[in-house]
Design goal:
134 residues; alpha/beta; 3 helices
Length: 134
């Protein structure tokens, strides 16, 4: 009976340890990850416009570096900085939500390089967990 109790206690201790480890893992930050693809904002948007399925296969879930001109800078409901990069499309752009506020003030018309995780196309191509590339 004592062996069963020790086994149950050991399993319980392992579960608690696993829970604590998972809680303390950093969110999958892109800051120290190498971009697997470097592309211009207009090219990325065109790839999604031409074939969303093919673009999702190539870009979705991957850390990519996108370069382009800032169309707009705002904050979302959580207070995170959101930058939209210009594309050849009048309406759609590349929507970049930053995981940490950029050190510099981003302004409309400024050329930037942004690294983030691609999450596909809504009305804009969405990049999350973004960071400025220096």
């Amino acid at each position: 009976m004592k062996k069963v109790l020790y086994i149950i206690l050991a399993i319980f201790a392992i579960l608690i340890l696993g829970y604590v480890i998972i809680l303390n893992l950093s969110q999958a930050s892109t800051k120290n990850k190498e971009a697997s693809i470097t592309i211009e904002a207009s090219q990325l948007f065109d790839k999604y416009s031409n074939s969303e399925k093919q673009a999702n296969t190539k870009y979705n879930g991957k850390v990519i570096e996108v370069s382009g001109v800032v169309r707009n800078v705002t904050k979302d409901k959580k207070g995170d900085i959101v930058v939209i990069l210009n594309t050849n499309d009048m309406i759609g752009g590349i929507l970049c939500t930053f995981e940490n506020p950029p050190r510099e003030d981003l302004k409309k018309g400024q050329f930037v390089k942004i690294k983030g995780q691609c999450n596909g196309l809504l009305m804009d191509v969405v990049l999350n967990k973004c960071n400025l590339v220096q």
